[in-house]
Write a structure and sequence with these properties.
The chain is α/β, with parallel strands linked by helices. The chain has a single domain (about 5-130), classed as Response regulator (Rossmann fold, 3-Layer(aba) Sandwich), CATH 3.40.50. The chain has helices spanning about 15-25, 40-45, 65-75, 105-120; strands at about 5-10, 30-35, 50-55, 80-85, 100. It has a five-stranded parallel beta sheet with strand order 2-1-3-4-5, with helices on both faces. Strand 3 (about 50-55), helix 3 (about 65-75) and strand 4 (about 80-85) form a beta-alpha-beta unit. Helix 2 (about 40-45) runs parallel beside helix 3 (about 65-75).
């Protein structure tokens, strides 16, 4: 599947990081939809064809780990990447496909997203820099 056909759901309770991630992923060629909470993300997933969920870990109401558990229960084949400013992986984050630190920057984010999509057979090639 070409990158331009891949939709990523970006979940973060804070508007600025959510918008920044959306813009940098769109610049790579992905389609991006957003949600400001775990509950909103679950509603988006019911209504939109999403290929990967990228969620912040620390959110009020429902953490990224809790969202991941719900996603994996309802959509077992949905890849989920958690991102956090806390460098220690939470014990309940083990059901996520990858856990990355925000300090890794955009290149790490691009590489992890592409690798997870490739692992799931959604993305045929890893070289996102050719776009």
């Amino acid at each position: 599947m070409p990158i331009s056909d891949i939709t990523i759901l970006c979940v973060d309770d804070e508007e600025t990081p959510r918008t920044l991630r959306k813009l940098i992923l769109q610049k790579q060629g992905y389609q991006v939809v957003t949600a400001s909470s775990g509950m909103e993300a679950l509603e988006v997933l019911k209504q939109t064809n999403v290929n990967l969920v990228l969620s912040d870990q620390m959110m009020p109401g429902m953490t990224g780990s809790q969202l991941t558990q719900s996603v994996k229960t309802m959509w077992p084949a949905m890849p989920v990447v958690l991102i956090s400013g806390v460098n220690e992986i939470p014990k309940d984050a083990s059901c996520a496909d990858k856990f990355i630190s925000k300090i890794g920057g955009p290149e790490l984010l691009f590489d992890i997203v592409a690798q997870v999509l490739k692992d799931y057979g959604i993305l045929a090639e890893l070289d996102h820099k050719t776009r």
